[in-house]
Design goal:
6-stranded mixed beta sheet; binds magnesium ion; 262 residues; 9 helices; binds adenosine-5'-diphosphate
Length: 262
């Protein structure tokens, strides 16, 4: 599944009647199987963009489409992962992961098998019967990812999913997500505050300007191609190519912040 935005824009009207121009005209195509990272200053419309793609929000201008079909609303084929897991604390890890399947009337035995497979994939084998409040933040995020994978969506939309995790946990989850995205060939749209994370994960990085947000840089990432994905994360991050691209993107964000940041 690929998705596209055709002159998509978003204006909000606040409770006090003020018009907020959150997203400027944005035209964009994301190919099936790609891993696109989005960075940009806080408040530039990243979450707005994700909500439009998820089908939570109908844009006030333009058309957002999946495989050429306009997005009408949320769909299990577009899984969403947020910064905080929003798991049901009274359910076990397994039951949380099975929930979407249950709503779709998948038989109990099959649900169980899919949940176990997905939990194993995110490194949570053996934790199936824990209650989610017994888990660390990293494990809760893993559970949330397993819950999305259980629905086998073609597109996964992620909004700063590792933003609240400590550095070590974050790096582990990054490695695991890369592995999963390649094994399962998902299309991933990943918002992050961290330029380093974007360059590490993405095969394409979009930089957005300050509000009203628009894409000011659309940069392919070829570092892992160059190194054939052979270097462990830590070494990849210190290659000259990685550092150069990271700095280029960071400079672009700084420039695009506008006068407010100066
Ligand atoms: N429902 C809403 N009503 C009014 N303004 C909103 C609403 N949602 C977001 N905004 C505003 O739109 C802008 C973009 O928000 P958002 O997409 O959350 O940015 P980001 O995720 O890049 O930080 C911000 O200025 C925010 O305050
Ligand atoms: Mg946001």
């Amino acid at each position: 599944m690929s998705f596209s935005l055709e002159a998509v824009s978003q204006r909000y009207i606040t409770d006090s009647g003020e018009v907020v121009h959150a997203l400027a005209d944005t035209t964009l195509t994301v190919e099936k199987g790609s891993f696109v990272c989005v960075v940009g200053p806080s408040g530039c419309g990243k979450t707005t963009l994700l909500k439009i793609l998820a089908g939570f929000l109908k844009p006030t201008g333009g058309i957002a489409a999946v495989d050429g079909e306009p997005i009408q609303g949320p769909s299990w084929q577009r899984g969403v992962v947020f910064q905080h897991a929003n798991l049901y604390p009274w359910l076990t890890v397994r039951k949380n992961v099975e929930l979407g399947l249950k709503f779709r009337n998948v038989a109990a035995a099959e649900r169980r098998k899919i949940a176990e497979d997905c939990l194993a994939l995110v490194g949570l084998a053996g934790f199936e019967d824990k209650k989610t409040y017994e888990l660390s933040g990293g494990m809760q995020q893993r559970t949330q990812i397993a819950r999305v994978l259980a629905n086998d969506p073609e597109i996964i939309l992620m909004d700063e999913p590792f933003g609240a995790l400590d550095a070590l946990t974050r790096e582990r989850l990054q490695m695991d997500l890369l592995k999963i995205s390649r094994e399962r060939r998902k299309t991933i749209f990943f918002i992050t505050h961290s330029v380093e994370e974007a360059v590490f994960l993405g095969d394409r990085v979009l930089v957005m300007s300050a509000r009203p947000g628009r894409v000011v840089l659309d940069e392919p990432v070829r570092i892992s191609e160059t190194y054939g994905r052979i270097l462990p994360g830590k070494e990849l991050r210190s290659t000259p190519e990685f550092v150069e691209l990271r700095d280029k993107i960071a400079d672009q964000i700084y420039e695009s912040q506008g006068d407010a940041a100066r």
